[in-house]
Design goal:
- The protein folds into two domains: 99 residues; 116 residues, Histone H3 K4-specific methyltransferase SET7/9 N-terminal domain.
- The chain contains one helix and 21 strands.
- The chain has a 21-stranded antiparallel beta sheet, with no helix packed on it.
């Protein structure tokens, strides 16, 4: 039976009813507790014993919100289409925000949780694991400029083991593979310039070569030793012809030579 119900909180339901409650196909219009004045939520889809349950479409309409209009914040509706359980987004679904962000994948208790794909309005795309909306677990992020990270995430930061590929200011493709912490190279890793094969392998601290490491250049030179703030400090440089320079270094220059 198709009926219309108006509830004490001002929400309005139109659709099928059973036992005095929404049941079957219907449409519910209301304002969320945290919504600005004028923001309206519209759900169209399945109901079971008064709950949004099954397949449905949720539209968050801010077109009549004075605050959004005056601040030019209103860019269109936020829309979710997919599964609902107990009046929450739960299961498989797609959310499109008015600024252009899109998430498609698993939902749990009204949050992105499980496997999913998140496309940002700026062109960045993440595919992988989510935990209560955060990028967490295994995942791949591709930025609009072509940079790619694939590996571990914690709290939406690159953290754990991973591989990052990008181009430097000269257009050279750089590859870093190893440990990350709080979105930075941190721990053990290998940093390679792919144009000529030059690489550094060793310790990193907050994105900088620091600790013990090896640098091998395309011309055959190899340095093994200590690094501080990305610079050689104490170690051995071996040339292709067998010549060795060993000692302390400052600003990339040997300052006391133990030449062999």
């Amino acid at each position: 039976m198709q009926e219309k119900l108006t509830f004490e909180d001002g929400s309005v339901y139109e659709g099928e009813i059973e036992g005095g409650k929404p049941n079957g196909k219907g449409k519910l219009t209301w304002q969320g507790e945290t919504d600005l004045d004028g923001v309206i939520r519209i759900y169209e889809g399945d109901f079971v014993r008064g709950k949004m349950q099954g397949k449905g479409k949720l539209t968050i309409d801010g077109s009549k919100c004075t605050a959004k209009q005056e601040s030019d914040e209103y860019l269109g509706d936020d829309v979710y289409e997919g599964d609902f359980v107990d009046s929450k987004r739960h299961g498989k679904g797609k959310m499109t925000w008015n600024m252009g962000d899109i998430y498609e994948g698993d939902w749990e208790d009204d949050t992105q949780h499980g496997k999913g794909k998140f496309t940002r309005f700026n062109g960045a795309v993440y595919e992988g694991d989510f935990v209560t909306t955060s990028l967490q677990g295994k995942g791949k992020m591709t930025w609009a400029d072509g940079s790619v990270y694939e590996g571990d995430w914690i709290d939406s930061n690159r953290h754990g083991k991973g591989k990052m590929t990008w181009k430097d200011d000269d257009g050279v493709v750089i590859i870093y593979e190893g440990d990350f912490a709080d979105d930075q190279f941190h721990g053990k890793g290998k940093y390679t310039w792919t144009d000529d094969g030059t690489y550094y392998e060793g310790d990193f601290v907050e994105g900088t070569r620091q600790g013990k490491g090896k640098m091998a250049w395309a011309d055959g030179r190899v340095y093994v030793g200590d690094w501080t703030d990305g610079m050689r400090t104490k170690g051995k440089l071996t040339y292709p012809d067998g010549k060795i320079e060993e000692g302390n270094w400052k600003d990339g220059e040997l300052i006391n030579n133990e030449e062999n």
